Amino acid sequence: MKNYQFLIFFSVVLLIYSAVNYYIYHRAMQALPVESGIKSWFRWVFIFVAESYVLGRFLERLHQSPFSDVLVWIGSFWLAAMFYFLLSVILIDLIRVSNHFIGFLPGSWQTPKATTNVMGITLFVVLSTVFIGYLNAISPVYTRLNLDIDKQANGLEELNIAMVSDIHMGTIIGPKRMTKLVDSINKLNPDIILLAGDIVDEDLAPVIRQNLGESLLKLKAPMGVYGITGNHEYIGGAEPAVKYLQEHGIVVLRDTLIKVSDAFYIAGREDRDKPRFTGKSRLTLGKLLESANKALPVILLDHQPFDLQNAAAAGVDLQLSGHTHDGQIWPLNYITQAIYEVSAGYKKKGDSHFYVSPGFGGWGPPVRIGNRPEIVNIRLKFLTSAKNDRTNLAF
């Protein structure tokens, strides 16, 4: 039944993807001069680029190779370019339709040459945007928060946390990016490292082939390195992904509550999408926390930031989440802001603190427009009062 549902979902996505590509292709072919020799090869280049992501992902599942890597990279950039080409073509067509009824464009703007010029300008703007977005995506920042927890922590006065979400280790986030991530985390000299889900980007094969787990083994924190599952661990197969992470130094909390240094609790929830992929439900938050001594601080890792009021009501002092990517590429952030109470950043509800990270890696395009990838450094002070502040520092 689940395979049938997945087939329907994949078919719908593929149909939409094909329709969008055909719309862009058709309008581009109309914009090219009839006598232009570009049309003869443009068709095949477009088909290759448009099919590269789907083909690359398919080949990855059969056999990971440099050829499949190249296809995935090309296709990933195309996803971002396709999105902005789609917005551009829609805007151009809206102008054309409006001009048909109102007639506000001068005649010189409606010639075949003008149409070709518009196509050239659109191409330049979109490719420039994607390139800048790529540079942005590989230039993460430190985000720092100082928070007060109005609880005693058995003598512990301060906790230095390094938190990262949505690493998406795989073909795109490879050895170079992982080395930079680990070095940047270790520079913070954290007491504890928390990974808030989507550590692996679906398929485990690229992770194994590139030995990305070796980087994880270099993470240093005296109180340990803890992680949780995200939806992408479940998309690619949660059990082998969790096994791999645990073999490489990550304590994966799967609806698990543990006491650290007899001073505070870390609770890690299974991803919200677990029932969709396994048919099994995750623990309720109340059940997960029922054995906790609420006199001590409670930190919750929950990949998808839904139902924040439940965490506040359950006595969670700090919840850390990811998943949203804050839309990743503008203007998709407006969609995530409409879906989630917090799409990215900090919020306090009652005595509970919440932070949602836009993540370190990305899904699909290696491009970010409108936000920065980040490593979060949180200093918890177990005092009665302190100011909360947040700053971004590039590194």
Question: What's a quick, concise take on this entry?
Answer:
By secondary structure, the protein is α/β, with parallel strands linked by helices. It has helices spanning 2-31, 38-62, 66-102, 112-137, 175-186, 205-209, 213-216, 231-236, 238-247, 274-278, 285-289, 308-313, 333-339, and strands at residues 141-148, 158-164, 192-195, 225-227, 251-252, 256-260, 264-268, 298-301, 318-321, 345-349, 352-356, 374-381, 389-394.
Mean pLDDT: 91
Summed up, the domain count is 2
End-to-end Cα distance, whole Å, is 48 Å
* CATH class label of the largest domain: Alpha Beta
Order of helices and strands: HHHHEEHEHHEHHEEEHHEHEHEEEE
Structural class of the helices, strands and pairings? alpha/beta
Helix content: 40-55%
Shape: elongated
> What portion of the residues fall into strands of 2 or more residues?
15-25%
- Lateral arrangement of strands in the main beta sheet: 5-4-3-2-12-1-13
CATH architecture of the largest domain: 4-Layer Sandwich
Task: List strands and helices in order, with pairings.
Blueprint: H1 2-31, H2 38-62, H3 66-102, H4 112-137, E1 141-148, E2 158-164, H5 175-186, E3 192-195, H6 205-209, H7 213-216, E4 225-227, H8 231-236, H9 238-247, E5 251-252, E6 256-260, E7 264-268, H10 274-278, H11 285-289, E8 298-301, H12 308-313, E9 318-321, H13 333-339, E10 345-349, E11 352-356, E12 374-381, E13 389-394
Parallel strand pairs: 1-12, 2-3, 3-4, 4-5, 7-8, 8-9, 9-11
Antiparallel strand pairs: 1-13, 2-12, 6-7, 10-11
Helix pairs in contact: 1-2, 1-3, 2-3, 3-4
